[in-house]
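Run log, item B.
One chain of 315 residues. Sequence copied directly from the ordering sheet:
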Amino acid sequence: MEKLRIVFMGTPDFAVGILDTIYQNNYEIVGVITAPDKPAGRGQKVSMSAVKEYALEKNLHLLQPTNLKSEEFLAELKSLNANLQVVVAFRMLPEVVWKMPKLGTFNLHASLLPEYRGAAPINWAIINGETKTGVTSFFIDDKIDTGAMILSEATEIGANETAGELHDRLMHLGSNTVLNTLRLIESGNVSTTIQDNNPDVKTAYKLNKENCKIDWTQDGQTIFNLIRGLSPYPAAWTFIKDGDQEWNVKIYSASFEKKDHNDSIGKITTTKKEIFINTKDGILKVMSLQFPGKKRMLAHELLNGISFSENAMAL
């Protein structure tokens, strides 16, 4: 058994769940590396990453390099004398970093590799209507999410599950997978599987304004999957036009009923408490949404303060 001296690298909440599991299981964490503080939100207040908050709370040695190749950072990383690095939701590492520890550097990725390599695997699995996903631990190499796989664990995706709900479940699943990976490495029993280099695997592209916009010409199930795959963040969005008013609206939750109708695609109808939008093959019922400058609201809360004409359309 080789005693592990771990450097952990990560930034968001997802990484905190894994870091906490490593900490609670009494592994020696000699350093934590996370993103530099940056301005966020409306007031552009400088905010720290979730991993930094956790590291400070637990009094762990913290580094926030702006340049992963700088001599100063590399010297400090080397001085920690780690024999293993664990990476969860961080950025791409230069070879000089991932090759540094004797036992290597492994990453936990929130998909069943080689499917959904890339920045947003949880979101894209739901957006694409998958019914199964999981997590994979693998040794890092010089490309993104292509290294030799150590362990993977699968789970079903619920028919109405959102990205936020799946995120939390995969964080727990990932924690167990990382723990089992550490035990294998520690005992010298780790074996790996080379990933298939299949050009047809699906990619988890970075989310942007364009791929988060609802396309009302698509079928209702596809639109419903986009909404739940982007909820609660960054949220699917659409323009809503009513007369000479136009709003950029985020939709956080909805349900879809497949049915025949003769109305225009995108037409909005309301009752006192409900909002419906026509798709080409059914009706999308909007449950929660956010208008510009307002907080996220349930449909009936929004309808207390706004009413739509019979010409209102989602575009």
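Observations after the first pass:
- The chain has eight helices and 18 strands.
- The chain has two domains: 5-187, 220-314.
Flagged for discussion on Thursday.
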